[in-house]
Design a protein that fits this description.
mainly alpha
């Protein structure tokens, strides 16, 4: 199957996710800057989630540049990823509207770890269909960033019970790791 429809559908879903997240930020009832102060936690949770969704979109785009064809299992693995990404508006809103608690930070981390796992599964399904000699396989390599991300998320979820702010710092550190797009695919495509 051609990959174009999968990419277009994924781009559309991701655009809707971002739109829903920004619509969750309510306009304050006041005309001075002090009225914005209560929105700071909402904005910070939105900014982090926007960054995460952007990272997934960017890496999804790079990943599919090396993909030649998709199969039924790839479609399902991609839909699995989109399911977890679609929960970002909910956990973002809950985190932003409430204090950093074990529940809010733990659930946020739970969605992060599931999205990371879903992306890892998508990559594995794509690799199974392209073979070990493919450009995709060479570009992915050992996928250290993907594996370490899931480990850091798990640590954050565990820490959320005692030190939610430290758990959030771990989630931010994963975003920083992924902020620079993965250049391995671009490198192997240009060769």
């Amino acid at each position: 199957m051609h990959k174009g429809r999968l990419e277009a559908f994924s781009d559309g879903v991701i655009a809707i996710i971002i739109t829903i997240m920004v619509l969750e930020m309510k306009v304050p009832h006041g005309a001075d800057f002090a009225a914005l102060r209560p929105l700071l936690p909402v904005f910070l949770s939105y900014a982090l989630s926007f960054l995460y969704v952007g990272i997934y979109w960017n890496n999804h785009h790079h990943l599919f540049q090396a993909v030649k064809q998709v199969s039924g299992p790839v479609l399902w693995a991609n839909l699995h990823l989109l399911f977890w990404l679609s929960l970002f508006p909910f956990v973002t809103g809950w985190l932003g509207e409430n204090e950093l608690t074990a529940s809010t930070v733990g659930l946020y981390g739970g969605v992060l770890i599931m999205a990371g796992t879903a992306y890892y599964i998508l990559v594995r399904v794509l690799l199974a269909g392209h073979g070990s000699d493919s450009i995709l396989a060479k570009a992915i390599g050992r996928d250290f960033k993907g594996k370490i991300s899931v480990v850091i998320y798990a640590m954050g979820i565990a820490l959320a019970c005692w030190l939610p702010w430290l758990a959030m710092a771990l989630y931010v550190s994963v975003a920083i790791i992924w902020l620079v797009p993965d250049r391995r695919i671009e490198k192997h495509l240009s060769e």
